User: What shape does this take?
Amino acid sequence: MAELHPTGDALWDRIENAVQKVKDRLRRVSTALEAAGVPYAVVGGNAVQVWVAQVDESLVRNTRDVDIVIERSRLADAIAALEPAGFVYRHAKGVDMFLDGPAAKARDAVGVVFAGEKVRDSYPEPVPTLDEAELVDGPSTLSLGALVRMKLTSYRDKDRTHLRDMIDAELIDATWPSRLPSELGKRLQAILDTPLG
Assistant: This one.
């Protein structure tokens, strides 16, 4: 059984610190890649935050992950840019990541997926290309449409939760399923048809 830690102010400090670590990691990665001229886009929960926060900050959900899209041909450039910022490249069990320091755990890493490639062979769509990245007053982020397609392609519990957040923020509505590839449209329709709460 897990060991419990302090409560009260000490617990609030731990919660605040956990959130801040993710934000700092995202800033360090984006700053280093931009300075080196390596194209990238933020994806995952941080990208969802970027879009949802523009509409309603009360719908913003914290995430423990930092995930980026880069072009496979620029991986060596990304490694060269991120190592001086303290990140260590690892490829393990088919997953590419940058650990936040040599002693960091995988959960303290920056996940990498490659533009235009499928993350898994079973996925219906590849990762969007960086042509669909946008600067939204901050780090380069996938466009809303590309992010929605990525979330529908992965379709894990957390992806469905992120999609519901975007629906709650009215970034996605009933017109979207018909604008998507067939399989993704069916997945989105299923979420729209089963609202929570």
User: Anything to note?
Assistant: The longest helix spans residues 9-36. The helical segments are 9-36, 44-53, 75-82, 144-154, 157-168, 182-193. The longest strand covers residues 109-114.
